[in-house]
Design goal:
The complex is a heterodimer of chains A (496) and B (100).
Chain A lengths: L1 E7 L3 E8 L1 H16 L14 H8 L1 H23 L10 E6 L3 E8 L3 E3 L17 H14 L2 E3 L12 E10 L5 E9 L7 H7 L7 E7 L13 E15 L5 H7 L6 H35 L1 E3 L2 H21 L4 H8 L3 H29 L5 H12 L5 H11 L2 H25 L5 H10 L1 H6 L2 H11 L1 H10 L23
Antiparallel strand pairs in A: 1-2, 2-4, 3-4, 5-11, 6-10, 7-8, 7-10, 9-10
Helix pairs in contact in A: 1-3, 4-7, 6-7, 7-10, 7-13, 8-10, 11-13, 16-17
Chain B lengths: L2 H4 E4 L3 H7 L3 E6 L5 H12 L3 E9 L3 E6 L2 E8 L3 E8 L12
Antiparallel strand pairs in B: 1-2, 2-6, 3-6, 4-5
Classes of the chains: A alpha+beta (496), B alpha+beta (100).
């Protein structure tokens, strides 16, 4: 076999392969045998016709094509081995150059090359999270707003900003038929109505009839009515004002379960806010660290990876759409985009994700981060330990021990270990300090197993390609390394 | 009748390819051909020595052409043929069948 290799930009290789005549002949013979079972030559039972007759019946091209099915992949595999290339996947492009001699060219995407930057010099700072009294009060007030009731003012008074009114209304726009609507609820001061109309609705009294003159605004979305005069006959049925609930223990107990006093409510709010900001800060910190690592590194890869990632994104979109009973085509029609435009829009983001994922798995390799089956067992134990009922606990444990769940737990543990490590390098503290401690105490020997030596062994076993594929392909749902799958969002319950 | 009119075409079937291994070749021949004529014709065309000739008539079959509007169809008959199995002298072959 003669092979000529040429390296193309973007981690691709172009090979020109020529297969020996003898090998081609052998494969043609085998192909003929296969074909002969499928064609009937008159005078012969299936598979009994002499090869020469079969070849004459189907044509030499057909036999050659059939032979290529075996010949080409074998030749490519052999050539890749011979040239010591690290192929990422199947060839992207294949072209027959000549049949005699049997010669063809292929373009093969190669494994990405990651130049890991000096990730150990990355520095970041974890900002302390604070919650002020004002923050708490604001949330408490929002809660009151949400729980507000609309009541008729006592004593009755004319309408004013902030009120709701229930009215019967006849709208007569100049040049069109009047339209009436009964029992319409309008809100004042919410800027839903035309300002001119809204201003006139203020100061009206319950039970009275009014006639309001309005000029439709020039920029009215409906061109037919823009700029016209309109008359509104309004009968005010009700005026309601917003009454905020009093901030007392009864209110506190109503809006938050397990809370019985205002002071407890404030504490609860403070705690929730704190947690939320803690999570936000963690995300920001992690993002910062990852960005810095990525900035210091460089990745050379075939476009195929980006395309695959785009495929994934679109699949995701499709699933999301399915939940709202839409198909991708409907979505495209609705947004007025073509499939290609959509892909184009996803491209940058997809590239970024792939790069990130590649860089991070390189960091993981360098740091010897692996997840052992024992770690997964332990995590399953931890998740199920809080279930009190024996039967249910066993059931859950069994469920989680299924392959899919184990893998998803494994991915999650891997993520957590990795982000802990990189954040620790950058700040001196892991991202989830408490957990890391708990883990270390609970199973010191499990941690030891995941030493760098072991890590190398596993990555060799899996084979570079498989490992890499999982890094990229599974990135969206709890893949090894993407910020989106940081544990806060990747609770097991969301993954099934 | 010229030898080429007499010998119409080789008959290549599974059975006949097996016979070839024994030096027997099968041809479709003119219905009127006699064994002697066949022997001479084959010897002349292929330049071989014929040891024996067996012949057989294959009668045509009744074929019914189904047609719209004609209840039982049109009865017809397909052509019959005459086949001759020619045995050549030991070690001789006919190139036409070669590779088959």
């Amino acid at each position: 076999m003669k092979v000529q290799t040429e390296t193309l930009p973007g981690r691709r290789a172009r090979l020109e392969i020529e297969v020996e005549e003898e090998r081609v002949g052998r494969e043609m013979d085998r192909a003929l045998r296969r074909i002969s079972n499928q064609v009937t030559v008159p005078g012969f039972r299936r598979g009994r016709a002499p090869r020469v007759l079969v070849e004459r019946a189907v044509g030499r091209d057909y036999v050659l094509r059939e032979a290529s099915k075996e010949l080409v992949p074998d030749a490519i595999a052999a050539a890749v081995e011979q040239e010591k290339l690290e192929a990422l996947s199947e060839p992207q492009y294949l072209n027959m150059l000549s049949t005699e001699p049997f010669r063809f060219e292929v373009v093969i995407p190669l494994l990405p090359e990651v130049q890991l930057g000096d990730y150990k010099s990355v520095r970041a700072e974890r900002k302390p999270v604070t919650v002020t009294d004002e923050d708490v009060e604001k949330v408490v007030n929002d809660l009151r707003e949400e729980e507000a009731e609309w009541r008729a003012p006592e004593p009755a008074r004319p309408s004013r900003k902030g009120d709701q009114m229930v009215v019967d209304m006849e709208e007569h726009i100049e040049g069109s038929e009047p339209e009436t609507e009964e029992g319409l609820t309008v809100a004042l001061g919410e800027e839903v109505l035309m300002p001119e109309l809204e201003a006139q609705l203020e100061g009206l009294e319950v039970g009275k009839d009014y006639e309001l003159e309005v000029t439709m605004p020039e920029d009215h979305p409906n061109k037919d009515v823009a700029g016209r005069k309109a008359t509104y006959k309004v009968h005010v049925k009700e005026i309601r004002e917003k009454v905020l609930p009093e901030l007392n223990d009864e209110f506190a107990a109503r809006v938050a379960s397990g809370v019985s006093t205002v002071e407890e409510l404030r504490q609860r709010v403070r705690q929730t806010l704190h947690e939320r900001r803690e999570t936000e800060e963690r995300n920001r910190l992690l993002e910062d660290v990852i960005n810095q690592i990525v900035e210091r590194s460089s990745v050379d890869m075939p476009d195929l990876l980006v395309e695959r990632e785009i495929d994934h994104q679109i699949e995701h979109l499709e699933e999301d759409l399915k939940r709202s009973k839409l198909t991708l085509d409907q979505f495209l029609a609705f947004t007025g985009k073509s499939r290609d435009q959509l892909r184009e829009e996803y491209r940058d983001r997809a590239r970024e994700r792939v790069v990130r994922s590649l860089v991070l798995s390189e960091v993981a390799k360098a740091e010897g981060i692996t997840v052992e089956p024992a770690d997964v067992d332990q995590e399953i134990g931890r998740i199920t330990e809080s279930i009190e009922e024996d039967a249910r606990r066993d059931e859950t444990r069994e469920l989680l021990s299924g392959d899919t769940w184990r893998r998803s737990i494994e991915n999650e543990l891997y993520d957590r270990k990795l982000v802990n490590r990189i954040v620790e390098i950058a700040t001196g503290e892991p991202l989830y300090p408490e957990e890391a401690e708990a883990r270390a105490e609970a199973a010191p020997e499990a941690e030891e197993q995941a030493g760098p030596g072991e890590a190398e062994a596993t990555s060799e076993e899996t084979g570079a390609e498989a490992e890499f594929a999982s890094a990229v392909e599974e990135a969206p749902p709890g893949g090894p390394v993407s910020v989106e799958s940081a544990p806060s969002e990747a609770e097991p319950g969301e993954k099934s | 009748m010229s030898p080429y009119e007499l010998i119409k075409r080789p008959v290549i079937t599974e059975k006949n390819t097996m016979l070839m291994e024994h030096g027997q070749y099968t041809f479709e021949v003119a219905p009127t051909a006699t064994k002697h004529e066949i022997k001479e014709a084959v010897e002349k065309i292929f330049n071989v020595k014929v040891v024996s000739v067996n012949t057989i008539h294959v009668p045509g079959k009744t074929k019914i052409k189904r047609r719209r509007g004609i209840p039982r169809g049109i009865v017809g008959r397909s052509k019959g043929r005459k086949k001759a199995v020619v045995k050549l002298a030991e070690g001789q072959r006919i190139e036409l069948f070669e590779g088959v």
